[in-house]
């Protein structure tokens, strides 16, 4: 197949690194969009960053929905490549892009039309809420670019060409980094400026993906970007991607509730601490997610080719790497929480509240990375439901736990401990579930 790498043969560790490094770098680049906005907007004050942070939970929900076609692409296209079925790989790629466009248009329209009541959920001061509404309306109009770029990233990852999304997203980040200070301070557009910088960067990223797939034809000749949806392909994509999108979207709903609770307990500082600490924690999340995505693509091809020994060796190598990184991040969060948070929000009161959130969260980093790494194996096998069950049940446990801990008089610490303890629980449960699957299925193959 033109431009596609075969992952069913060759050195495992080398292939994992070749796949994972660009994927991790791409994840960091996507995270850097938000961190760049936070860093510049943070210079406007904690109220401005609270406005952007409230919308950040909605953009998180957006990327969660986009996972339907990212994971759908990585698994359906990857397994088709593993079975050496080029026709199916092309059809799955086209279907994922078409579905992502349809879903994104509906979602963006809903957020734009109902931006006022959505932002009102956080009960912010009127001037902070208005900044948030304006920011949401601008960035939501760019969501079709985000959805289709995410699906295209999944297609390239499944094809073993993860360096291409890295390069494209890197260009987008540079554009965003240049435009942020220009729009925010020079043009004096404040939070609106951050939104427009992100809008333009995302449009450029999508245009680059179109060029690679449609005009440069790097994967297939005469690739059809959009097409009429056919039931067998659509059904398979939804079966694979919907559980992942659902668990992440419901996770975002939980965090919206926790964000409102944090706002009620600690005012705009509470909301700011939760959203910004979440962006900082994305450093560890995206690292493990990068390895997990690479593992998913690797497992998809090898599982379809029935090379189970390669699957298990890849998992062990990935666990070693994520464990080492998790130890480092645990140490930094626990002992340097205030200093890390102060990089983004230099106000003393703000970074003390945020630093506490990072310190408590530090105790769960290894378990979080274990959960995400094992998700990659489940996804590559096409078993996306078990991780969804674990994630949804434990994440929704956070609501009663947070209310209970706050009622104990723990304040914001109660919310931070809720997040920490449930993350630990998710890591333990998915490990037990995987061991059971391994004994029943993989060891007998």
Please tag this protein with its features.
445 residues; mainly alpha; 84% helix
Note down, in words, how this protein is organized.
There is one protein chain. The protein is mainly α. 84% of the residues lie in helices and 0% in strands. The longest helix is centred in the middle third of the chain and has 74 residues, at 231-304. The model has no long low-confidence stretch (mean pLDDT 83).
Short description:
With 445 residues, the protein is an all-alpha fold. The chain is built from 14 helices and no strands.
Annotate the secondary structure layout:
Layout lengths: L11 H30 L4 H37 L3 H28 L1 H6 L5 H15 L2 H16 L4 H24 L3 H26 L15 H74 L3 H37 L3 H15 L2 H16 L4 H23 L4 H29 L5
The number of E-state strands comes to 0
DSSP summary: helix tally: 14
Structural class: mainly alpha
Order of helices and strands: HHHHHHHHHHHHHH
Helix content: over 70%
| Mean pLDDT score | 83
Q: Tell me about the biggest sheet?
A: none
Distance between the termini: 28 Å
Strand content: under 5%
Rg of Cα set: 21 Å
Q: What coarse outline follows from CA principal-axis ratios?
A: globular
Enumerate the spans where pLDDT stays under 50 for 5 or more consecutive residues: none
